[in-house]
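Troubleshooting log. The previous run stalled partway through. Resubmitting the same two chains, unchanged.
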Amino acid sequence: MILAVQSLDGEEAARDLARRCVDGDRAAQTRLFREEVRRVHGLLYRVLGPNGPHEDLIQETFLRVFRSLPQFRGESQLTTWIGGIALNVAYGYLRSNPPPAVRLELVPDARVDESEAEQQVAARQGLRRVYQFLERMDPRLRIAFTLHAIDGRPLREVAELMSASLVATKARVWRARRELDKRAKRDPLLASFLGGALGDAAEDTE
Amino acid sequence: MKRGPIPPTPALADAAVARIERGLFAALDARPLAPPRPWVSRRSGLAFALAGVAAAAGIFAVREGRRGETLPARAQLGTAQVTTTTSGSRIAIGGATLDVAPQSAISFGGGRGGAVVVVLDRGTVTCEVAPRATRAPFIVEAGATRVTVIGTRFSVHRVGGHATVSVDHGLVEVADTNMTELVHAGERYTPGEAVTREPVASAAPAPAAIASTPPLGSSAAGATAQVPPHEDPTPATRQRHPRRVALADAEGHAPASPRTPEDGAAPAATARSGDLTIADRPNASALTDAAAAKPSPDTPLVAPRHSVQVLFELASQLEIRDPEAALRIYGELAAGEDGWAAIALFASARLESERGQAQLARELCETYLRRFPHGPNADDARTLLAPAR
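Second attempt completed without errors. Output:
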């Protein structure tokens, strides 16, 4: 997924749309919402996993977007700015809510090639472990890790989204990987499921 | 980097989009967007509100010449305005001592997140602020210039819509139109210019020594450039503040015991009243000694965990812009005994290594392994030591 896609026909168009939203133009607000809602959903889903109250958080994100638009100065792309607000909403949610038990049936199927039922089950269990692990992780580490390691965004983009420095972002991803590594050593299922990823993580932290 | 196993993101159903849209616009209709107003108007509104709520308390304090006294709790929790005429005034609030120069006006009150916000409407205010590790932020606004305090003594002089900022101790972050600068001890920020060293200010003592610093004006750090207008810069005149208020503390913390600069080298010794002070960077041996030292049992050392984490994150962010400051913070955290001490100690070793300070990095790694032989970065410390050996 690429976050920085400027689907709003360039920066000037985005600023114009933002201005009209601020002026209370409902058509502009609707357009902005529909343009961005799926991107915001994807972002929240990556960070929160399958069990978060996504619809509520999407709504909260857009409420904040519309209320904060008067402060949008066009210093970053509108989509990136909205992404930052979505991450703030996700961060607030993670900080104020205890980790829920991950329900197996809500974890989507992993992309495994093998069609055998046993491996499918093992993959689902492995994904369940991943989400359990993420629930216990510090929200900042979790957000940085999910955006970079799972969603594949460049560190620089993650840093911009999180309003953090590149070094801080790198450190967060690094620490998250260490926690993941540590846990996988005690969890054979997780280790086998993430075998490839752990190898990559070890390379990246050098 | 190769990706790990990626859980698929299910598409958001059209029905869900419609549900969210209905809920969103219903909420917007229930509470329409406020019409945009220029920033200056908001600030003026804030200043007006600050003035309106508790102006009487502030003005009364000024007229009575009550210098060096903590304002009533009601004023601290609410808002107040102080306007000075021919003589200055000293007030204490929220862990800070404010010296308001003659012909100056300030408003202060609570901001978001419990922050103490001081708005300088005109003139000069000199602030001595206790480290903010466990306290709410302390912010001074003067026109478009915004100063966020980490723990320091500094002066803000308003010039039109902006302000100059001179820092005696510690570190502040100055935000002005389209820029943000870190201003260190002995430096001066002037709008539109690069941050410059103060010509007079010498190496500032560590904040731990603040409590033993002589009264305002008699300190060597009282550079001419920081003397407010309308005030004679000679020490004799400035010593008309005979009674020094110890860092007034809304939480009721006692001020730090007097210390001399000589014994303030160890970061562990700079912690006080539950705060972590960002001290001037100690030399290498002091850092490793402090990291290895056991704190005395009666020394409150470790701030609440979340504050420590905030400090750690701050240090991480400072690594590129200001590695010296990052190392100071890591040094402070490393003096603790909790999990963050181990992480911070290794972080300082890593950072020193990245800066090419192999010997320092080696000493820090050895200290780490002595203190935390099974710590989370023990293997990393051994790896870092390996080439040196």
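Takeaways: The interface with chain A takes residues 1-12, 16-17, 19-21, 23-25, 27-28, 32-34, 36-37, 309, 313, 316-317, 319-321, 347, 376 of chain B (CB under 8 Å). The longest strand of chain B covers residues 145-159.
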